[in-house]
Design a protein that fits this description.
The structure is a single chain. With about 260 residues, the chain is of the alpha/beta class. Among the domains are: about 100 residues, no CATH class; about 80 residues, no CATH class. The chain contains four helices and seven strands, in the order ααββββββααβ. The strands form two sheets. The protein has a four-stranded antiparallel β-sheet. Strand 1 and strand 2 form a beta hairpin. The radius of gyration is 39 Å and the shape is elongated. The N terminus is likely disordered. Keywords: Membrane, Transmembrane, Transmembrane helix.
Length: about 260
């Protein structure tokens, strides 16, 4: 009888332990699933926060890139050989009927239109419109860094600058061939004897020298070659190449009587 009791107790203990293990296993599996879900949720939130932080940083950089691009664009447009573009809408910048500037080649205009900032972002001119009546230019520049884009809009005053004290002593539309001729200051310094040529062409080193700085000695020597002036030819003023903005010719006296 005593052996029977001992067997019964062991059987009950074995049955109790087996039932307890059967309860712990599902609980551990459920707890593991909950921890997995919580972990994935935390990873997802962390990833979203990182993406959001990256986009916010790129957006700020894109705005800074647009501002830098606008500054560079205005600096380029204020250069003597590029300032003509300030008085034209962007659609006319590469229109040969609107500009005869020998320095405004397509590659040069492309350099003005877009560029890179610090090897991480790019800017591009989206639009430029000139209001002749208000003498204002309206500029839109877009900056892009990664997937972020930002635009800025500027309104700039455009003032037309006249040539040095006179429109010129010699004006040529299609061609100028000075050779040994002189263009002299005829009023003792009160009127500069300039040479203006609208369609004179430049190439090679002369084009580079004139477009870098037309008022420098190298630029003026290049311009002399364009108007075919010999070394002995004397020009008291300066040589200007490109589109001419000539003053209106005043009507003759007693024009109504003609």
């Amino acid at each position: 009888m005593q052996g029977y009791k001992r067997f019964l107790i062991k059987a009950l203990q074995h049955s109790h332990n087996k039932n307890h293990q059967g309860f712990v296993l599902p609980m551990m599996i459920g707890l593991g699933l909950i921890m997995t879900v919580v972990g994935l949720t935390m990873i997802g939130r962390s990833s979203d926060d990182q993406i959001r932080s990256t986009l916010e940083e790129q957006t700020a950089q894109a705005l800074a890139t647009a501002e830098t691009g606008a500054t560079r664009t205005l600096a380029s447009l204020n250069q003597p050989n590029n300032s003509e573009l300030l008085t034209l809408d962007i659609d006319d910048w590469e229109n040969p009927d609107q500009t005869n500037n020998p320095c405004l080649l397509p590659d040069k205009i492309d350099e003005i239109m877009e560029g890179e900032v610090n090897n991480q972002g790019r800017y591009q001119i989206i639009d430029y419109q000139y209001d002749e009546n208000a003498e204002e230019g309206r500029l839109r520049v877009q900056g892009k860094v990664g997937e972020a884009k930002q635009e800025i809009k500027l309104v700039v005053d455009v003032l037309e600058e006249a040539l040095d004290d006179s429109f010129g002593g010699l004006v040529g539309i299609e061609n100028v061939n000075l050779r040994h001729l002189d263009v002299r200051d005829v009023v003792d310094g009160t009127l500069l004897a300039n040479v203006l040529c609208q369609d004179c062409t430049l190439s090679g080193d002369d084009l580079e020298a004139y477009c870098n700085d037309p008022s420098s000695s190298d630029g003026q020597n290049a311009a002399r070659n364009a108007v075919r002036a010999s070394q002995n030819s004397i020009i008291d003023g300066s040589i200007f190449l490109g589109e001419l903005n000539l003053p209106e010719v005043p009507p003759p006296e007693n024009a109504n009587e003609l």
